[in-house]
Automatic annotation (TrEMBL), chain B:
The complex is composed of two ATP-binding proteins (PotA), two transmembrane proteins (PotB and PotC) and a solute-binding protein (PotD). It holds the Pfam family ABC_tran. Keywords: ATP-binding, Cell membrane, Membrane, Nucleotide-binding, Translocase, Transport. Signal peptide: none annotated. It comes from Aquamicrobium terrae. NCBIfam families: potA. This is Spermidine/putrescine import ATP-binding protein PotA. Part of the ABC transporter complex PotABCD involved in spermidine/putrescine import. Responsible for energy coupling to the transport system. Its EC number is 7.6.2.11. InterPro entries: AAA+_ATPase, ABC_SmlMolc_Importer, ABC_transporter-like_ATP-bd, ABC_transporter-like_CS, Mo/tungstate-bd_C_term_dom, P-loop_NTPase, PotA-like, Transp-assoc_OB_typ2. Belongs to the ABC transporter superfamily. Spermidine/putrescine importer (TC 3.A.1.11.1) family. GO terms for molecular function: ATP binding.
């Protein structure tokens, strides 16, 4: 009797354990399915971001340091230059290799890649290569070395060969150096380029201060508007919010044309100022096609990006806080400074960062209304992308910009106490 | 301590409807006055006008005899406890309490001392360094009270300060606020829609409806002797019976009900014979199976609809006078029996407990918007 009870107890214990196992397995399976479902939901976006954002970004970063086009075209030359000591001109075989490389490049129409790389550091590289490539059809009598030097004396200059060797390395710092207005001499030392060529650093600084000024102006103009919008009844504030968002809905060209009509020398603003007697006929202000125009137009376009985060933070502050401060005896100014303003800081930081980051990358507006003095670094990047076709330099400029923006973001994160940004 | 006086104060937002309608009200020094009424009755607007956040459309408000309509809120020296406390979230509790003292340019040593004293008064001396978000609702409430009192205002306004607390905490805070009021002797104007709160704490209750004061009296009077049918229905529970006055004699009158019965009632309304009235009778004033006594007791028989047990008392629903259902509240200690549904029952009450009021809620004083 007792034995059978014990046996049935053991049996129950056994089934209990297996039941527990079964439940555990089912639990794991359902968790796995839930995870897969979640993954399937975010997968399209992840793939899109990887293909359209992460991959191009990585390409840009590698292009900024890569040199492989040059080395790939002159592959024989770079191989034979590998153990050249750089003191005298290279041996005959290297000249033969160069001739073979240039010949092949000419047939494959890849000479442009060679010249554009060389042209940056070697004056007259383009005519040199073209002239050389044209005269390679017949085999030389006394070897390629003599013939090439005869075609162009530059081929007898070890500095040119040192340059070719340096350009043949798979990785190079010359794009980054150029982006910072620096260059590497043939002996490897780094020094600044001629003052009349040094433009990138100036433009970096201009981009930074213009962006900071635009963010500051947006804050100055947007803060009172956002505070008003947050206090008004929803119906009125929705209507006014449409006015705030109007720049978003206006075509860029229409907006820019309006600015030109308003701000040009004989434009509405100047006419008004002259009519009011504030400035004389001869003292008409130049408000467009210079950095002032860039500032005005960018502030206008970016203002909503300041107002929206401010508005969403301010909307969450009940009016009773300021009332409480007043009832406790604080003047309206003190109530604003000590109670309202501190609570809007997250919005101020978010808006400022957003506007600054967007302004740093601004390109079309400065191109249209900036004139010469209102161009920003993005315009130079676009120039190198589309006109000079120096993609390596464009990539280096872009990478420096990216690092700068990340630095600013990190700084803001530190300022907000590591809580990150609240966009609303 | 301060006295407050509203003289013919009206407030309108759209020029047509009055939120506050020709209000006259005096609050004596050291008095605890509650403004009690449903939402939209004008009580909060009155408080906001007193605090200076709203301006009266006409009339004048006096603080200690001086007109204050044109005085900015920050110059009124009135403490205020807000509905959601409005404790500054970016400051610690101690900084919150120091704020009104700092803007008054009080020396640092005095500020520290006053802040400590205020924290001790609300029994939170150890929480000075916390942020408001780290406190429980009850603690935030205490800090809000302390902040409204720390700069020694003569008048403190409270705008439904206990609304966000649960029932138990609310009752506890009611006694605490009352205790502080008695200790400091400060004048308090307290806005609430909770009648129990008003009854427990106040020296005087002003019952608001439609921007007018319906009754201004001590809590017991407001409860026991409502002056019109709105007050009778708004405060506590009442059995209401419509009827027509047949004749008035002295302070009593005879009222005919819809089913043709005629009963005696205390004539509170001004309506003369032939006028409509609402009879109001407190459930706890009704006696079950009364012993026969003098002639002034009204007796009526009815049928039990239901009996609900509520712990200390029972609520008995009785159908009387044809179709009307009366609620009768009986202490269980004195009842000692249960009724079955449909059983006949005799109810009795003194004629003076049955008050003949005006015919419709809120219609007793002035026009209704």
């Amino acid at each position: 009797m007792r034995g059978s009870v014990a046996a049935s107890w053991l049996q129950t214990a056994g089934t209990d354990a297996s039941r527990k196992n079964l439940i555990l397995r089912q639990h794991r399976r359902s968790r796995r399915q839930a995870r897969l479902r979640a993954l399937a939901l975010v997968a399209p976006l992840c793939i899109f971001l990887a293909v359209m954002f992460a991959w191009p970004l990585a390409t840009m970063l590698t292009r900024a340091v890569s040199n492989d086009e040059f080395g790939a075209v002159l592959y024989r030359t770079s191989a034979s230059l590998a153990d050249w000591d750089g003191k005298e001109t290279p041996p005959e075989e290297t000249y033969a290799d160069l001739a073979a490389d240039l010949k092949q490049a000419g047939e494959e129409q890849k000479l442009g890649q060679v010249t554009s790389a060389l042209n940056f550091d070697w004056t007259g590289a383009r005519p040199l290569i073209m002239r050389t490539a044209r005269q390679l059809s017949s085999e030389p009598e006394n070897g390629w070395k003599e013939k090439l030097i005869e075609i162009a004396p530059d081929w007898g200059n070890p500095d040119l060969w040192a340059l070719i060797k340096r350009l043949s390395q798979p990785y190079t710092s010359r794009h980054f150096l150029a982006a910072l207005d620096l260059q590497q001499a043939a002996d490897g030392s780094i020094h600044g380029v001629d003052a009349n060529k040094a433009i990138d650093v100036t433009l970096f600084w201009r981009t930074l201060w213009v962006s900071a000024a635009v963010a500051g102006l947006c804050l100055l103009l947007g803060y009172p508007v956002a505070a008003l919008l947050a206090r008004l009844p929803l119906k009125t504030s929705n209507l006014l919010m449409m006015l705030v968002l109007l720049p978003f809905w206006t075509s860029l060209l229409v907006r820019t044309t309006s600015w030109i009509v308003l701000l040009q020398g004989n434009g509405v603003v100047n006419d008004l100022l002259v009519w009011l007697g504030i400035v004389g006929e001869g003292g008409r202000l130049s408000l467009i096609f210079n950095v002032t125009g860039t500032l005005i137009a960018m502030t206008h376009v970016l203002l909503p990006f300041m107002i929206l985060p401010l508005y969403s933070v301010m909307k969450a502050i009940p009016p009773s806080y300021v009332r409480a401060a007043l009832s406790l005896g604080a003047s309206p100014v003190t109530a604003f400074r000590r109670v309202y303003l501190p609570q809007t800081i997250p919005g101020v930081l978010a808006g400022t960062l957003l506007v600054f980051v967007l302004a740093v990358g601004y390109y079309i507006t400065p191109a249209l209304v900036g004139g010469q003095s209102g161009q920003l670094i993005s315009n130079v990047i676009a120039y190198h992308m589309q006109q000079s076709l120096n993609w390596g330099l464009a990539a280096a400029l872009g990478s420096i910009l990216l690092v700068g923006v990340l630095l600013v973001y990190w700084l803001f994160n530190r300022l907000t106490g590591g809580q990150g940004l609240r966009m609303g | 301590m301060a006295s407050v006086s509203f003289a013919n104060v009206s407030k309108t937002y759209d020029g047509k409807t009055s939120v506050v309608d020709n209000l006259n009200l005096d609050v004596k020094e050291g008095e605890f006055l509650s403004m009690l009424g449903p939402s939209g009755s004008g009580k909060t607007t009155c408080l906001m006008m007193l605090a200076g956040f709203e301006t009266a459309t006409s009339g004048e408000i006096y603080l200690d005899g001086r007109p204050i309509n044109r005085v900015a809120p920050q110059r009124r020296n009135i403490g205020m406890v807000f509905q959601n406390y409005a404790l500054f979230p970016h400051m610690t509790v101690a900084e919150n309490l120091a704020f009104p003292l700092q803007v008054r340019n009080i020396s640092k040593a005095d500020i520290a001392q006053k802040v400590n004293r205020a924290l001790e008064m609300v029994e939170l001396p150890h929480l000075g360094n916390r942020r408001p978000a780290q406190l429980s609702g009850g603690q935030q409430q205490r800090v809000a009270v302390a902040r409204a009192l720390v700069f020694d205002p003569k008048l403190v306004l409270m705008d439904e300060p206990l609304g966000a607390l649960d029932k138990q905490l609310r009752e506890q805070m009611q006694y605490e606020i009352k205790r502080i009021h008695e200790r400091l002797g400060v004048t308090i104007v307290y806005v609430t829609h909770d009648q129990a709160e008003a009854l427990t704490m106040s020296d005087t209750i002003a019952v608001f409806n439609f921007g007018k004061i319906q009754q201004l009296a001590k809590p017991a009077e407001v409860y026991e002797t409502p002056s019109n049918s709105f007050v009778a229905q708004f405060i506590g529970e009442n059995n209401m019976l419509p009827g027509t006055i047949v004749e008035r004699s002295g302070n009593l009158c005879k009222v005919m009900l819809a089913n043709g019965d005629t009963i005696a009632a205390l004539a509170v309304t001004d309506a003369q014979a032939g006028g409509a009235t609402q009879l109001s009778l407190r459930p706890e004033r009704i006696v079950v199976d009364p012993a026969p006594d003098g002639g002034d007791r009204t007796l009526v028989t009815g049928k039990i609809v239901d009996q609900i047990y509520v712990g200390d008392h029972s609520r008995i629903q009785v159908r009387v006078f044809g179709g009307h259902e009366f609620i009768v509240k009986v202490q269980n200690a004195s009842l000692r029996r249960t009724f079955s549904k449909g059983e006949a029952i005799t109810l009795g009450w003194h004629a003076t407990d049955c008050r003949a009021l005006d015919a419709a809620a809120g219609h007793s004083s002035g026009p209704v918007q």
